[in-house]
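Human:
I keep going back and forth on a fold encoding question. Comparing notes only helps if you start from a blank page. Show me how you would write down a chain together with its backbone fold. Write it directly below this note and I will take it from there.

Assistant:
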Amino acid sequence: MAAMELTREQIAAVAEAKREAYEAIIGLEVHVQLKTASKIFCACSTRFGDPPNTNVCPVCLGLPGSLPVLNREAVELAVRAALALNCRVNPSSRFARKNYFYPDLPKGYQISQFDQPLSEHGCLEIETNGTRQRVGITRLHLEEDAGKSLHEGFSDSDSKSYLDFNRCGVPLMEIVSEPDLRSPPEAYAYLIALKQVLEYIEVSDCDMEKGSLRCDANVSVRRKGDPKLGVKTEVKNLNSFRYLARALEYEINRQVAVLEQGGHIEQETRLWNLQAGRTEPMRSKEYAHDYRYFPEPDLLPLVVEAGWGERIRQKMPELPEAKRARFGRDYGLTDYDAEVLTANRALADYFEAVARAAPDPKAAANWIQSELLGALKEAGREISDSPISPEALAELLNLISNGTLSGKMAKSVFEKMLATGQSAGQVIAAEKMEQITDAGTIEKICREILAANPPQVEAYKKGKEALFGFFVGQVMKASRGQANPTLVNDTLKKLLGTQ
């Protein structure tokens, strides 16, 4: 019996009235391409963007007589990820053949792991709406990627399909979460946290546009209080975190509407149709036995000795949560500032390099967040591509601290540093922008301004105190903004007889 398909209007109407009576159960399967130079079972390049079918060999094309050889680096990266995600790394695991037919799977099976995965029983902490929660990770295992089908044409008469096998054999980790997520925002937060950890430990570039990170979502609904899980569907084709949230929201509402209309949920795979804004049936969902798993006869069991695993652990970089805590402890940052400045490893490293060389870590945090990140975003650049190096920003902050530059002058210098890539010292020398701190020079300028404005001086002395700002502005204008503001204020008060 075919699944009940409702219109978007029907789904929206029913879900609005009945959604609160149901609970969603969500689990995510995330496929992550490992950052290796060669494929998992052969020496072919994993480079993205090469001409189709140029990075192939008899092994990844599945030609008769070819034998796979496991890439040690792929194993090390996967173990590093497993440790970062608090998984237990199994001392022995093995590969299996996952049998299914698809045009871009030349062997007719995929080498993956089934009942003996590389690692299991991990967890990841996430935060949504100020609440922290633990999301369990069922398993993290290794497998090879399939190829890519390319389609063109819009009708049966002129449509064509092409196969690019460059991706065949590219090393993947599959990270399967427990069904611990209860809403699209939680799923979104989980993916953000997972991507952050994987980027920190440098196991993948996690570039969704290149297919380095792909996500499938398993979702079901049940009435609140019902201990029995509902029938789940798998939603595929989720190539951004935003689309994941939208697809989950739609699918949850769809399942609620189907059940409320007296229908039943089919266990199936559905695709997210971005243009239509809906999930659509693709095929009935396979069970594990449908794939006829059996141990891969051409590969020995994978043994991760305790010493090997410990060496990988010792080389692990600091993880985001630990770094946030340390930034608060060592640099006095607020939770919010620490969260922003550890969003990715490059940004965290940039801040720490500035903070170590600048007189005030909080000032460094403020300048990076309020000035640098905004300018980089406007220019469409990443922190790793900043024209201002950490050393150059630290120099600027030191010049502010020692009185060489006022805050206003510093912002002008900063803008020129962004535009030219020069250091603060180079900009100041070229523009003659050094702050005037000589008391005699400032007094001379102040006297000239007061002498040129006798009516304003007289009005000020009669009680029109707002004119003081006028005098300050005139002095700063005459000094091209280079006069020390504190000295200007003190000198004017003295000359005007108010000090």
Summary: Residues 439-495 form a domain with the Arc Repressor Mutant, subunit A fold (CATH 1.10.10.410).
